[in-house]
Amino acid sequence: MPSVRVPGFVMTHRRRLACCLLLVLTALAATSAAEEPKGPAALGSLVSQIAAFFPPLSGEVIEVRDKNLILSVGRRQGAQVGMELSLVREGRELRHPKTAEVLGRVEQELGLAVVAQVSETSSVATVARGGGVRPGDRVRISAGPVTLTVAALGSEGVSPGLLETVYNELAAELTATRRFRVISGDAFAAAAAQAHIPPERVIQGEGLAVTATRQGVRHLLVLWVKQVEAKPFVEVRLFSILSGRETAPVLSAGLFVPSSINAASASLLQQQALATQRQFSASREPQQASRPSRSFLARLFLGEVESESPSAGNFPMPLREVKRLRFPVLAMDVAVSPKDKVPRLVVTDGQRIYLYRIVGRTLEIEWTYVTDETGQIVSVQLADLDGDGLLEVVGNRYSPLTHIGPTSFILETREGKAAAVVQSFSQILFAVDTTGDGIKRTLWAQRFNADTFFTKGRAERYVLRDGKLVADGSVQVPRDFRVTGAILSNIAGAGARALAYVDDQHRFAIASGGKEMWRSAALVGSAGHLKLEGQTDRASRDLFYSLEPMPLAVDLDGDGVEEVVLPQNQVRGKLAVVSRSPNGYRFQTFDTGFGDTITGLGAVAGSPAPTLILSVVYFEGVLAKWGETSIVMTTSR
Question: How confident is the model at residue 261 (pLDDT cuts 50, 70, 90)?
């Protein structure tokens, strides 16, 4: 190939062209750097490209040719190739019964169409799901917020701080458009890591069809942060999870990570390093000189375990099985009896309740109780409700029959056997630790509602007096609060204990005084469903409500502030840990190494860290009603 002589080296035409291009890009980069905004707006161009695929859009089907549709929307209205449109058929008008105001029309959903060709004022689309489309039917993209799952993956050499900062900046920019409801793709990233699919294959769509569909993801944005020319670079792919199109991205983009984000990442790492240094300095003070070093578990949760992996979810937790139960544990709780200081564990298989003493790392059965009431036991808690230092068991049972619904009961130990204190109470009971001493002494109750299951925004306080439950005032709770999957914790800082709970969308929320303080983007919880037979406002059909495992509030590092641990059963065997840092709340995912449903959590205080106890159920059969349970505990490492 002809070449040009340049002092010091030989340059081919191809290399000369590459160098020219590099000079142009360098000049553009210099101009961009000079004008680059200080905040996340540096990602504005990427956000605009993503938003362009979800414009509020409405049109009509003009012509139907088998699976191909001619639509009245084109480039002028924002239509693009690859865009998904909902197909609907409008029916009669809906009018207000008193004012006669037209409220809209009855609509029948027909399916989805994917735009294949676009002209200025019309387009051609292919029916991707559904059918029976006729001319005159409507196509649209809703004006409501679009749920977008964002999964951030990192290559070797990319720091977790940079990965977190890129995700946070992009998520904030997407949310600021008010067009998107951003959900963390931590569960998706953890599933890909568990399946040993590297980021360079995930970005090509490998594993999307199974993993994203299983997790109910519709729109997935994958970020792959890596090093290019010794600088952080992010590749972006937008996928719409639709049968046959899972591996075909509707948008592909890439950009070098803006310097403002690099600076934010460096600042985050510096703050974390300073926090760690302060903790180390405090541990060197004379009054704490004899304090033992942190356990592997505490260091793991606090991010002090060194690893080249960018995801905390790749760390296996130090757990081992201590007992195998030949039945599925549907709920579990652990508490230390105030009187004899012996830790106890209570579990239920839905029909029976088992109370164990925890002696070292063994379980000794104390009693078994079989209920005579109709329904399945769905939750059990250990509490000292009468202040005698002995633990009672607070339980809830549920019948799918609408005239029964949920009922609750309270058991105590008499002469080594279980005895009922309250046989059947018509509300759902929830025992809470209002003081933070590790013992639940207060009862909250939530009424059953046949339409919403839990009465929204309402809870009442009860006390146990002479074997009877007596109302003791109301409790201020958020509207989406539910007594399953909830706990009180001091994670929000000094003052009143905050309410931490799993909402009906499987998000974890922290609230104080009835007002939300923080909510996770990632999915959590999910241990089963309750079925309400034949109940709906329009027809006789079954409705299902999520049954959430109780979170665990526990001080993992001895600083006096509790972390909250809860199952993340969207990816079996995963735990989520929420902690508070100087930069706000931190959400981490960990692999227990026991790859099935986590139905219960508990802890026993100890030094240098508490012992965590989990119930992991290996369900069998299509209906998942049978199985075995591993009771596992954390070990030192």
Answer: low
